[in-house]
Write a structure and sequence with these properties.
Pathway: Pyrimidine metabolism; UMP biosynthesis via salvage pathway; UMP from uracil: step 1/1. Helix content is 33%, strand content 32%. By secondary structure, the chain is of the alpha/beta class. The structure holds 1-O-pyrophosphono-5-O-phosphono-alpha-D-ribofuranose and uracil (URA).
């Protein structure tokens, strides 16, 4: 079974409070989502392999460590996942970015795929699927399934807020996927929104209704 890691660092929790606040406008909301994504990236990349390198400091020769060149792919689930990409790329600028368009039908809450463009070598990459919200888990499950069908072997899921129902759904269908979240909230309401959550992540990021 994949792990569920709740990243309760004080900076993340503080920023999440402002993200949740309905009085936070789109500009600040976007900036905060990017910042929290960056902080989550710090933890999700903790097990990246290192190799020994030799360099010369201004003082002497030194044996130090560098990333061993593990290939990473970042896969935002459109639209709201886009809001997290900038923060992730600040820490891992060499990552390739693929996009999966999935929206949740508001009546049935079922995921509908409308776009998919991923790096051709996803089978060799460590993939980080990103979406601020893990509600029923339908969108994440469908996206992970599409990636596996295209050869993906190694997938982690990074979200800001998850409902217990969403975590359970992903663990049931994709037990190989580790989940990293900033918070696990109480429940889903009758419209499939996370309670207390932050509302509609895509609308708040892009100023739509
Ligand atoms: C939101 C969110 C997730 C999905 C979560 O996207 O960004 O992708 O809902 O819900 P689920 O876990 O029940 O599938 P939405 O469908 O609103 O699309 P958008 O990002 O284009 O606004
Ligand atoms: N999608 C969102 O944007 N917010 C929720 O609370 C649930 C799904």
């Amino acid at each position: 079974m994949g792990i569920v890691k709740v990243l309760d660092h004080p900076l993340i929790q503080h920023k999440l409070t402002f993200i949740r606040d309905k009085n936070t406008g789109s500009k600040e909301f976007r900036e905060l989502v990017e910042e929290v994504a960056l902080l989550l990236t710090y933890e999700i990349t903790r097990d990246l392999p290192l190799e020994d390198v030799e360099i010369e400091t201004p003082v002497c020769k030194a044996k130090t460590k560098a990333l061993s060149g593990k290939k990473i792919g970042v896969i935002p689930i459109l639209r709201a996942g886009l809001g997290m990409v900038g923060g992730i790329l600040k820490l891992i600028p060499a990552a390739k970015v693929g996009h999966i368009g999935v929206y949740r039908d508001p009546e049935t809450l079922q995921p509908v795929e409308y776009y998919c463009k991923t790096p051709t070598d996803i089978a060799e990459r460590d993939l980080i699927v990103v979406d601020p919200m893990l509600a029923t888990g339908g969108s994440a499950n469908a996206s992970i399934k599409f990636l596996k069908e295209r050869g993906a072997q190694n997938i982690k899921l990074m979200c800001l807020i998850a409902a217990p129902e969403g975590i359970e759904a992903v663990q049931k269908v994709h037990p190989d996927v580790d989940i990293y979240v900033a918070a696990v909230d109480e429940k889903l309401n009758e419209h499939g929104y996370i309670v207390p959550g932050l509302g509609d992540a895509g609308d708040r990021l892009f100023g739509t209704k």
